[in-house]
């Protein structure tokens, strides 16, 4: 599924990395615990989180997760945008809860990492 489709499904707003909207992603992982994200052994997955700080961007970089779906209408800081731009990370912001985002994407065919 393309990130453009994901953005549409979660009624999102792309705040960084719009040039990656045609990229495809098959797997997602939802967590606010970045230590859990670091245990994922899959590359190129969508990170679904409500953690709106620089650590979520750094964790995505280290975990080879080039796409972040930020839930609960969290605000993205300038520092987050700058680091995401440097790492070519796409960030979509959604007003929906993490549970709702994950459910919508699972129903649409996105696979869990485990």
Number of strand segments: 6
The quaternary organization reads as single chain
Number of continuous helical runs? 5
Read across the widest sheet, the strand sequence of neighbours is 1-5-4-3-2-6
Approximate strand percentage: 15-25%
The value of Rg in angstroms is 12 Å
Shape: globular
Alpha-beta content class: alpha/beta
* Residues in helix, %: 25-40%
- End-to-end CA span: 18 Å
Q: Which spans have pLDDT < 50 for at least 5 consecutive residues?
A: none
- Mean pLDDT across the residues is 97
Largest sheet: 6 strands, mixed
Q: SSE string, helix = H, strand = E? A: HEEHEHEHEHE
SSE topology sketch:
Layout: H1 3-9, E1 13-16, E2 27-30, H2 34-37, E3 46-49, H3 54-62, E4 67-70, H4 78-86, E5 90-93, H5 98-107, E6 111-112
Give a structural overview.
With 114 residues, the protein is α/β, with parallel strands linked by helices. It contains 5 helices and 6 strands; from the N terminus they run αββαβαβαβαβ. The chain has a 6-stranded mixed beta sheet with strand order 1-5-4-3-2-6, sandwiched between helices. The radius of gyration is 12 Å and the shape is globular. The protein starts with a helix and ends with a strand. The model has no long low-confidence stretch (mean pLDDT 97).
In short:
By secondary structure, the protein is an alpha/beta fold. The chain is 34% helix and 19% strand.
List keywords for this structure.
globular; 114 residues; six-stranded mixed sheet; alpha/beta
């Amino acid at each position: 599924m393309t990130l453009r489709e994901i953005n549409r499904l979660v009624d999102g707003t792309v705040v960084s990395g719009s040039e990656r909207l045609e990229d495809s992603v098959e797997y997602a992982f939802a967590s606010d615990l970045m230590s859990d994200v670091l245990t994922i052994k899959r590359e190129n997955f969508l990170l679904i989180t409500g953690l709106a700080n620089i650590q979520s961007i750094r964790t995505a970089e280290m975990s080879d997760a080039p796409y972040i779906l930020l839930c609960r209408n969290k605000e993205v800081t300038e520092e987050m945008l700058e680091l995401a731009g440097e790492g070519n990370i796409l960030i979509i912001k959604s007003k929906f809860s993490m549970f709702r985002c994950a459910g919508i994407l699972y129903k649409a065919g996105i696979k869990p990492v485990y």
